[in-house]
Amino acid sequence: MIGFALKTAYNALDVSSFREGDEDYDITVQLPEAEHRVTDVLRELMIPTPNGEMVPLSTLAAVDYSGSIGDIVRINNKRVVTVKANVDETKIPGPVARAQAEALLKQYHLPPGYTIGFTGEKAHGGRK
């Protein structure tokens, strides 16, 4: 749900259409362009929870910025993009969440030369 909400906010989503005479007009939802770079807007973006309640993104995730344009991270001379997550183990055990993520990502088709890999907390010098 978080990914869908962020994609909608930044990339837009056609939610309906409006017809006037012979013309159809898309009704699109998106953050105003000026707010795309405002960090407070991202932290306060309302996200639906599984039970339908709306909560600010900041209650579900920490928003941190790192790297910069042109910053290429490498591990063993291979370009790497790292995605991190912390699991609320009172809701779901970490190994179960990892197994679910691995199962979902196995269905994702990557272009040639791309791979998805999982590491634990102790990999890469103690970083998660």
Question: SSE layout and pairings?
Answer:
Blueprint: H1 2-11, E1 13-20, E2 23-29, H2 39-44, E3 46-48, E4 54-56, E5 74-75, E6 78-79, H3 94-106
Antiparallel strand pairs: 1-2, 3-4, 5-6
Written account of the structure:
This protein has a two-stranded antiparallel sheet with strand order 1-2. Strands 3-4 form a two-stranded antiparallel sheet. 3% of the residues are buried. It is α+β, with helices and mostly antiparallel strands and 128 residues long. The protein has helices at 2-11, 39-44, 94-106; strands at residues 13-20, 23-29, 46-48, 54-56, 74-75, 78-79. It has three helices and six strands; from the N terminus they run H-E-E-H-E-E-E-E-H. It folds into two domains: 1-65, Multidrug efflux transporter AcrB TolC docking domain, DN and DC subdomains (2-Layer Sandwich), CATH 3.30.2090.10; 67-128, no CATH class. Residues 124-128 have low confidence and may be disordered.
Attribute tags:
extended; 3 helices; 128 residues; two-stranded antiparallel ribbon; 6 strands; disordered C terminus; Multidrug efflux transporter AcrB TolC docking domain, DN and DC subdomains; 23% helix; alpha+beta
